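User: Could you write out the 3D structure of this protein bound to flavin-adenine dinucleotide? I've included everything you need below.
Assistant: Certainly. Input first, then the structure.
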Amino acid sequence: MEFVKGIDESKKQALEVAEEAREKEWHHPSFLAQLFAGKCDWNLIYPYPEQTPEDKKTGDEFLDKLEKFLRENLNPDEVDRTGEMPKHVLDGLAKLGCFAMKIPPTYGGLGLSQVNYNRAIQLVSSYCGSTAVWLSAHQSIGVPQPLLLFGTEEQKKKYLPRFAKGEISAFALTEPEVGSDPAKMKTTAMPVENGNYYLLNGEKLWCTNGPVADIMVVMAQTPMTVDGKEKKKITAFIVEKTMPGVESTHRCRFMGLNGIQNGLMRFKDVKVPKENIIWGLGQGLKLALVTLNTGRLTIPAAACGAAKWCLNVSRIWAKEREQWGAPIGHHDAIAYKIASMAATTFAMESVTWLTSRLADLKKTDIRLEAAMSKLFCTEAIWRIIDDTVQIRGGRGYETADSLRGRGEKGIPVERAMRDLRINLIIEGTSEIMRLFISREAMDQHLKFIFPLLNPKIKPAEKIKILFAAIKYYTLWYPKQWMVWKNTPASVVMPRELQGHANYVEKTARKLARNLFQVIMRYQAGLEKRERVLFRLVNIGCDLFGIAASCSRAAMLHAKNPSDQGPVELANLLSREAERRINRQFHGLFKNDDRLGYKLSRDVLEGKYAWLEEGVILQAY
Ligand SMILES: Cc1cc2nc3c(=O)[nH]c(=O)nc-3n(C[C@H](O)[C@H](O)[C@H](O)COP(=O)(O)OP(=O)(O)OC[C@H]3O[C@@H](n4cnc5c(N)ncnc54)[C@H](O)[C@@H]3O)c2cc1C
């Protein structure tokens, strides 16, 4: 990590910890990793990979039961109002197998595919955000997911059947000082009794399901000897609620998701047997990152559920509500919001189900696709819910109970907005997603650059690497200027979408050469140019949206050529996205980033404190 020399020690340490925990190998191809390298490998996403009919049937049957149960037993507004999830709802969900959706039948679970699991989360989140979070925190990041990925057979046999009976789990990584950056973790687990046990001490913040969890996966610093030196490394432990010293000291309350149980967890001298370590000493952070690679796919699925719901609410209201002599949906400004909402919902579904299916097929590396789906869908749903509130006007701001109280339909747009905001923060904030994606996108170049800048590597070795780099770039860079090359003949798109597919093909090369130019231009200083990196990620994000939407529209159109709908949706989405992409390219080298950065430093130093005058500032 000498590439980051010249930056302060704590930041360097944070970057080193993150770098160490990175999955360094790419065992399977990734559409997005290649896209950032200038290659649009349509084979990975075209034809659009669909769920098999058998898998769909399994999902349909389960979803029917789940929907019926939710409609008959769960009142989401009551959950929001009271802040409590009724016991009969949790019991009923457990009986349906909802706490063991992805757990294989051999351990008593439903053994659903990633697609069906995500469909279930989509369904639940369209109805009650809090309930969706109970389920997804438990099995997307809670104990089942890391156990399935890294647990020993003994651990799986011991714990997985308990979830099938309805026990609930949680994932505890965040601490008061540890948000996006785990390097400052204070929770420790020190070996005792010849290393047969670990004494866990510390506090974990915002642990979803924590106060009610039977079992948790807890990340803690453990001492290790690496290269003869004592180092602290993060290790993942299975911790049971019944272990003495485990305590939930405060239930946290939020802007939305009022029905979740989320707490500050305290661990005081909790004696954890060494058998409860998952994957091995020092592997905890990597485990968290790998778990999240697929785990965070439920967030875009949940966002899709919300987007479909918003589209329905907006469509009905924009037709029903008349102002100025016409339904509001016929006024140009509202009409475009609805069209864009429909096209964006189609794109959200396209990236989410593409990535979920790729996760099931296990032939591609989806770490970038999952992060991009999360970024794409969470930012899109925030625009969609904002438009939905606007389309509903005053009713969008009014609570469902109040609407009902004065005799109108209790449509909970206000609750939906409160519930949806968190998606841009949990399981990797939008900023951290962009940093993660840009790091992976640069990997192809950094594998040459890091060794060249590393003083520990001998000059002879460096010369070898330098020659390899020259050879690679002499071929690679000119290729990125092949502006005439279109999509391969095997990619057959409906006429209206062919231009968009060609745009993705060509723009991938433009993206790759711009990424390379940015690295060459800023070198070690690039670490400080987040806005430049983020523009490149935004371009990749929109290209992914266009490619997935066009591929899916082509599949749907081939099945039913008389229906132009999917083509029109993909067409509008692509046109909007291309305009955004062109703006991002324009801003890459011509921008106000430096000016803005300097101004922000002045603001932080209090130079503009006079702007804060004339209001009531309280001491909190
Ligand atoms: C409702 C809820 C449920 C949660 N559930 C869980 C859970 O079950 N388990 C768990 O472990 N945690 C959980 N969390 C914690 C959540 O994952 C964190 O809030 C999240 O990781 C961000 O950390 P932070 O809030 O401390 O923000 P910080 O890391 O302090 O960041 C604050 C802001 O700065 C930005 N930022 C930080 N670093 C950089 C950078 N290098 N460059 C640019 N911008 C940066 C962030 O993007 C963010 O906008 C939950 C939080 C909430 C609110």
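The mean pLDDT is 94.
User: Perfect, thank you.
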